[in-house]
Write a structure and sequence with these properties.
This protein is mainly α. It has one domain. It is 66% helix and 0% strand. The C terminus is likely disordered.
């Protein structure tokens, strides 16, 4: 997971991908959906027996639709869902890496990133999960 996060975070990752959005580059249609799906596949592989959060799955579905040449002419409506899906997937990947070892003890208040990551798998940090 950390290698994938490094791959999507470096110069040829996050920085270039967002530049392509603002540059109105056709390459955005190639890079973002591919990277988004790669991240989602890795996240799903962490718990293959669990369905990912329905809202997350919808965002990814909307952001990875096949490209049509006419999409380029109407930039924002066709690229924003791709950027949104990428941001959500990358965020979940980042939280997976950040909290990979779990938490050393039950916190008084669970870190929001950890709680959000758990919600990806329809889980919550209830007392029963910590005991």
């Amino acid at each position: 997971m950390k290698a994938l996060l490094a791959k999507v975070s470096g110069f040829l990752g996050y920085e270039r991908d967002i530049h392509e959005f603002y540059d109105h580059s056709f390459m955005l249609f190639l890079h973002l959906p591919r990277k988004t799906l790669e991240i989602v596949e890795a996240l799903q592989a962490l718990a293959p027996h669990r369905k990912l959060n329905a809202d997350f799955r919808q965002i990814v579905a909307d952001g990875t639709k096949p490209f049509k040449p006419s999409d380029y002419k109407n930039w924002l409506p066709h690229t924003r869902p791709r950027v949104e899906a990428y941001f959500h997937a990358r965020y979940m990947l980042e939280m997976a890496c950040k909290y990979a070892g779990g938490l050393p003890r039950p916190p008084q208040v669970a870190p929001l990133g950890w709680v959000t990551f758990l919600r990806l798998y329809k889980m919550s940090p209830t007392k029963s999960k910590w005991a």
